[in-house]
Amino acid sequence: MKTILVTGANGEIGHGLISRLAEQPNLRIIALDLHELEENIKAKCYRVVTGDILDTALLESVSATYNFDTIYHLAALLSTKAERQPVLAHKVNVDGTLNLLEMAVGQSRVQGREIKFLYPSSIAVYGLPDLQKKERAGKVKEHEWLTPRTMYGINKLYCEQLGIYYAQHYRQLDAEAVRGHIDFRALRFPGLISAVTVPTGGTSDYAPEMLHAAAQAKPYPCFVREDTRISFMVMPDAIEALLGLEAAPRERLTRLVYNATAFNPSAGEIYELVRRAFPKAQVTFVPDLKRQKIVDSWPTDIDDSAARADWDWKPAYDFKRAFEEYLVPGVKQQYAVTDSVQYN
Ligand code: SER
After folding, report:
1. Ligand 1 centroid to 80 CA: how many Å?
2. Residue 13: phi, psi to the nearest 5?
3. Are the C-beta atoms of residues 343 and 278 closer than 8 Å to each other?
4. 150 in contact with ligand 1, CB cutoff 6 A
5. What's the pLDDT score for residue 180?
6. SS3 for 264-328, per residue?
7. In angstroms, rounded to a whole number, what is the distance separating the alpha carbons of residues 32 and 14?
8. Ligand 1 neighbourhood includes 123 CB (under 6 angstroms)
9. Total structural domains in the chain?
10. Domain range for residue 178?
């Protein structure tokens, strides 16, 4: 029986991950979130803890109760929200991660074995200075353009380094080896699009928002220019990527931080597919110049060849398949859209 801790369980990735983990036998999911979990997700968990990752007493009590094999630390404030509350973002994104890493070290000492720590990072760690350089940079590798311009990107980049420190250099000056063993693995996600949920507080949110608005026949003023281009992936692939990285044999991994991506349409190309599925979609492009600047600093594409080589990462959904086989049927079902009623 494996015991898995998922923080940020109520978030978009949390929902997808818990649903997928619940399909596996011999696995107990302990979910932690600031807010009450939705009933259908709750039912999939062995225990649900409602509380704050900044509450170290709470973390200690959770840690004293269970022996974790793997921790998926998903809790975070996304990029737009983090710009509005930078101090809170730093607390949750950085101090919260530090708390979880400390918990993992404590667990490792008590259990006398390595604890896996999976950390979703982001394309927000990259920061291209202007559109020309963004265009010229093309597919960005893990070590390139690490000059983020958002609080969220800075937090994610630093926490990747924290994780590496905990995995490789923790308390390196101690005379006696007190260090716990953490098997830290980070995955830099592109923008994520789910058919089931809409993200809150991100800056890549224009893509999922456009789709979900169209499916509900609501007008959508898109906050970026039509030619805006960054990488995306659909939620089922994001979950498979996390599970794939978790399952990869340690000896095959050549790094602790990996890019992963699936496709990189412009906002206009996303609108094309949305309109094809929902011909009456009312999308206008009304760029919010400040949010636009954030997206313009993210690469047009990322190079995930290391993930493909080291742990056989390969997305199941390209752009077209994502819309045809996952997103459009998913949102139609969710909002009970029948083509004959709404669009013929
Ligand atoms: N989806 C994130 C955001 O928009 C980027 O990783 O903040």
Report:
1. 8
2. -70, -40
3. yes
4. no
5. 72
6. CCEHHHHHHHHHHHCCCCCEEECCCHHHHHHHHCCCCEECCHHHHHHHCCCCCCCHHHHHHHHHH
7. 10
8. yes
9. 1
10. 2-192+232-262+299-317
Whether 143 is in a domain gets the answer yes
What are residue 192's DSSP bridge partners? 233
At 175, list the tokens: 């005379």
The finding on whether 197 has its CB within 6 A of some atom of ligand 1 is: no
Segments of 175-231 assigned E as strands: 182-189, 191-193, 220-222
Q: Is the CB of 204 under 6 A from ligand 1?
A: yes
Pocket test for ligand 1, best of 205, 288, 298 (most atoms within 8 A of CB): 205
* Residue 27 contacts residue 66 (beta carbons within 8 Å): no
Residue 286 covered by a domain: no
Ligand 1 near 297 CB (within 6 A) = no
CATH of the domain at 80: 3.40.50.720
pLDDT of residue 174: 87
Burial (CB count within 10 angstroms: exposed 0-12, middle 13-18, buried 19+), residue 233:
buried
CA within 13 Å, CB half, 174: 9
Q: Strand pairing partners for 220?
A: 283
Please report, to the nearest 10 degrees, the dihedral formed by the alpha carbons of residues 24, 28, 34, 39 taken in order.
Answer: 60
Separation between Cα atoms, residue 197 and residue 20, nearest integer Å: 15
Measure 264 CA to ligand 1 centroid, in angstroms. Answer: 14
Per-residue pLDDT, averaged over 299-315, amounts to 98
201 Cα–ligand 1 center, Å? 8
Cβ(24)–Cβ(17) under 8 Å?
Answer: no
Mean pLDDT of 3-14: 97
Q: Is residue 117 part of a domain?
A: yes
pTM for this one? 0.96
CB 197 within 8 A of CB 12: yes
Q: Is residue 213 situated within a structural domain?
A: no
